[in-house]
Specification:
This protein is α/β, with parallel strands linked by helices. It is built from 22 helices and 15 strands. α3 links the parallel β5 and β6. About 1% of the residues have low confidence.
C-alpha cells in the first residue's frame, strides 16, 4: 500500500536546463556518431523517441560547463526564489540521481556544500529514474514527522559526460547496440521541489496525498547498468587490475538491454491496476496524468496496456515535456512538474497522478497530488474519518472500519473540491447560496428517517435487536428537517411549505438509491450509507460552520441544524458502531455490502453537493 500524507504540500518547483536547446541536427556537435553503424542507430532511435530538442551541460569540445551539483543548486535556487523562502528555512535536503560528480561523499552533502546551506538533515538516493521519487518519499515522510520547517528535494542528471565522442572513440568499430542506444535517449538537467507543512500564502499549492514506490529487482535481471562489461557477467569495474583496464573492456559504458523493456511497462500497469483495485485512486477522477517515459513510442505502449485493463486515462489529460526537454532520468519528473504548473491553468480540487517507471532493475513509482488554494487549511482538508480503529472493536469490525476510512478519505477529498465547499473555503459564499443549499437539502433530510424505518421493517425477525436500534436512531432524527426548514426561512427562504421544495438531481438519485436499498430483504448495506451521511454531519459540517458564520450576515438561529448535527452526530456514530458490531455478529459476511453501499453513497452525496449551486 502507498504511504499517505496528511500535511505535506508542494509549494514551489524549479528546474535548470543547461545551455541552449540542442536540436536533432545539432547533436553531432556534442555527441557524434562514430561510424556508419552508429549513425544508423542514431537515426532509428531519434525516429522513435520523438525528442526534438534537449540540453547538454558540456560544450562542443566535450568540456563540462555545468556540473551535476551546480545544476541541482541552480534548480533549488529557482525553486526557493519562487516561494520567497531562504535556505535558513529548510531543515531537510534529499536528492536523487544516478550519480553525482564524485563517487563519494553523497550527492546531497555535496549539494549542501555547493549551496553553502546551513546545517540540516540530508539524504542521498542513488538509482536511475525512480531515485528522485525515493528522495521525495523520504523528504515528505521526514517533514510529516516534523513540527516545522521545509524540505527540499532535488534530482540532477548529466549523462552527456559518458556519451561524448572522446569516451567512445577508442571503441568506434564495435557495434554494441546496447551501449549506443542511450546516447541518443538521455540528456542533462535538474529539477527541484519545495515541500512545506502548509499551503502557500498566495496562489495554488499541490497537496501530496500519497507516494507508492515498489521495486521488482528480484524478479528480472539487470536492464540498465554501468560498471560491468557488455554481457554484464564479468567483474565490477572495481575488480579490474586498474580502472584503465575496466575502461578498455567497456565497463564504463552505460548500457540498456532493450529486449527487457516491455516487461517494465507490464509490471508498471499491473501495479497501477492493483492500486485502483485497492481503491487508492480512480482513473476517472484523475485530471492530469504526468507519465515519465524515455520515448514517445512507449506512451502508446502505456496507453494500450491501460486500455486492456479497462483503466485508461484519456490522452487529453496526459502531460509530457519529453519532446522539448528530453529524457533527464531521475530529474525528468521534477522538470516535468515545474513546466506543468507554469503552463497549465490549474484549479483547486484537480487531481494529478505521476508515474515513473525505472528500467535500471525494474522499479515503479506513483504519486498523487491535489491542487489546493492558498487559504485552504490542512486541518480542513484532512478531516479525519468518523471512526478510527480501536482495541474495543472486534477484529472483523476493526477491519471494516479501516476499509471505510479509505472510502471516507476519498469522499472527503471529492466533497471538499465541489463548487459548494470551494466557494465556502475561499470566502465567496453568499446568503443566496445558503438559501439555495438549504432549499434542496430539506426534502432529502426529510427522507432520512423514512428509509431507515423502511430498512428496519425489512429485517428478518432474528435481527429484531438491530431493527430496534435503527428505529431508535430514525426516531431521534424524525423532525430534523423541520429545524432545517426553520433555518431556511430565517435565512430568507421564500417557500411557504416544505412540499414546495425539490431535491436537486444528486439528491433525487440518492433518495431513490436509499429507498431502493431499504425495500430489499435484510438491507445491512444501509449501515454504510449512515456512515457517510452521519460522518458528514460529525466531521465536515463542523469544519464549514465557522466559515459560514464569518461570511454570512445571518442570525445565529439560521445555523441551528448545522450546529445540532455537529454536536450530536458523535453519539449517533457511536450507536452506528454498535449496529455494525451487531450486524457482523448476526450476519457474517455483511461487511462487503456495508462497504459497497458506503462507496455508492459517497458518490451520490458528492453528486448532490455538486448540484447545489
Amino acid at each position: 500500500m502507498p504511504i499517505r500524507f496528511d500535511s505535506v504540500f508542494v509549494t514551489a518547483t524549479g528546474s535548470f536546463l543547461p545551455g541552449q536547446p540542442v536540436a536533432n541536427d545539432d547533436i553531432d556537435r556534442f555527441i557524434a556518431p562514430l561510424n556508419a553503424t552508429s549513425a544508423r542507430i542514431k537515426r532509428r532511435i531519434l525516429a522513435e523517441n520523438g525528442i526534438v530538442t534537449r540540453h547538454y551541460a558540456i560544450d562542443d569540445a566535450g568540456a563540462t560547463v555545468h556540473s551535476t551539483t551546480q545544476m541541482a543548486a541552480a534548480a533549488i535556487n529557482n525553486c526557493i526564489t519562487d516561494a520567497h523562502v531562504t535556505l535558513q528555512d529548510v531543515t531537510i535536503l534529499c536528492t536523487g540521481s544516478s550519480g553525482g560528480d564524485l563517487a563519494m561523499p553523497g550527492f546531497a552533502n555535496m549539494l549542501q556544500g555547493e549551496l553553502h546551506a546551513p546545517p540540516m538533515t540530508t539524504s542521498t538516493h542513488q538509482g536511475v529514474c525512480a531515485a528522485g521519487m525515493a528522495a521525495m518519499q523520504h523528504a515528505a515522510t521526514a517533514l510529516e514527522l516534523s513540527e516545522s520547517g521545509h524540505a527540499l528535494v532535488a534530482a540532477s542528471e548529466m549523462p552527456s559526460r559518458m556519451f561524448k565522442r572522446s569516451r567512445f572513440a577508442p571503441r568506434q568499430y564495435e557495434t554494441d547496440f546496447d551501449s549506443h542506444f542511450l546516447r541518443w535517449m538521455l540528456s542533462d538537467g535538474a529539477g527541484a521541489c519545495l515541500l512545506s507543512r502548509q499551503p502557500r500564502n498566495a496562489g495554488l499549492s499541490l497537496k501530496l496525498r500519497w507516494i507508492h514506490n515498489r521495486s521488482f529487482s528480484g524478479d528480472l535481471p539487470v536492464c540498465m547498468q554501468i560498471g560491468k562489461a557488455a554481457d554484464g557477467s564479468g567483474p565490477s569495474y572495481l575488480d579490474y587490475a586498474s580502472l584503465a583496464d575496466a575502461e578498455a573492456d567497456g565497463a564504463f559504458l552505460l548500457r540498456q538491454d532493450v529486449r527487457l523493456l516491455p516487461n517494465l511497462f507490464e509490471l508498471g500497469i499491473h501495479e497501477y491496476a492493483t492500486l485502483v483495485q485497492q481503491d487508492v485512486f480512480r482513473p476517472e477522477q484523475i485530471d492530469h496524468f504526468l507519465c515519465h517515459y524515455s520515448s514517445q513510442k512507449f506512451a502508446g505502449v502505456v496507453e494500450d496496456l491501460m486500455q486492456r485493463a479497462g483503466l485508461a486515462i484519456p490522452r487529453d489529460r496526459w502531460y509530457s515535456n519529453l519532446t522539448w526537454r528530453g529524457n533527464t532520468g531521475a530529474a525528468s519528473i521534477f522538470i516535468m512538474l515545474a513546466d506543468f504548473v507554469r503552463e497549465r491553468e490549474l484549479k483547486p480540487g484537480q487531481q494529478i497522478l505521476c508515474f515513473v517507471p525505472e528500467s535500471g532493475r525494474f522499479s515503479v513509482s506513483f504519486m498523487q497530488l491535489e491542487v489546493v488554494p492558498a487559504n485552504s487549511s490542512s486541518e480542513a482538508l484532512d478531516i479525519a474519518p468518523p471512526h478510527e480503529v480501536s482495541t474495543t472493536q472486534s477484529a472483523k469490525a476493526a477491519k471494516l472500519v479501516q476499509a471505510l476510512a479509505s472510502v471516507w478519505h476519498d469522499y472527503r477529498s471529492r466533497a471538499w473540491r465541489t463548487p459548494l465547499v470551494q466557494k465556502i473555503t475561499t470566502g465567496q459564499f453568499t446568503n443566496a447560496d445558503y438559501v439555495k443549499w438549504m432549499g434542496c437539502w430539506i426534502p432529502q433530510v426529510r427522507e432520512g428517517s423514512r428509509w431507515m424505518v423502511a430498512g428496519a421493517d425489512h429485517l428478518d425477525e432474528q435481527y429484531s435487536l438491530l431493527a430496534t436500534l435503527v428505529r431508535k436512531h430514525a426516531g431521534e432524527e424524525h423532525n430534523d428537517f423541520k429545524i432545517l426548514f426553520d433555518d431556511y426561512r430565517l435565512a430568507g427562504g421564500t417557500a411557504q411549505a416544505i412540499e414546495d421544495l425539490r431535491r436537486n438531481p444528486g439528491g433525487e438519485a440518492l433518495n431513490a438509491y436509499m429507498h431502493g436499498l431499504a425495500s430489499q430483504s435484510n438491507p445491512f448495506g444501509l449501515l454504510g450509507a449512515i456512515y457517510i451521511i452521519e460522518g458528514t454531519g460529525q466531521r465536515i459540517i463542523p469544519a464549514l460552520l465557522p466559515l459560514l458564520k464569518q461570511q454570512l450576515e445571518l442570525p445565529a438561529q439560521s445555523f441551528r441544524f448545522l450546529t445540532y448535527h455537529g454536536d450530536n452526530d458523535v453519539s449517533h456514530l457511536a450507536r452506528w458502531l454498535s449496529a455494525v458490531e451487531m450486524a457482523i455478529e448476526l450476519s457474517p459476511g455483511c461487511e462487503e455490502r456495508i462497504l459497497a453501499v458506503a462507496r455508492a453513497t459517497a458518490d451520490l452525496y458528492v453528486l448532490q453537493m455538486e448540484h447545489v449551486l
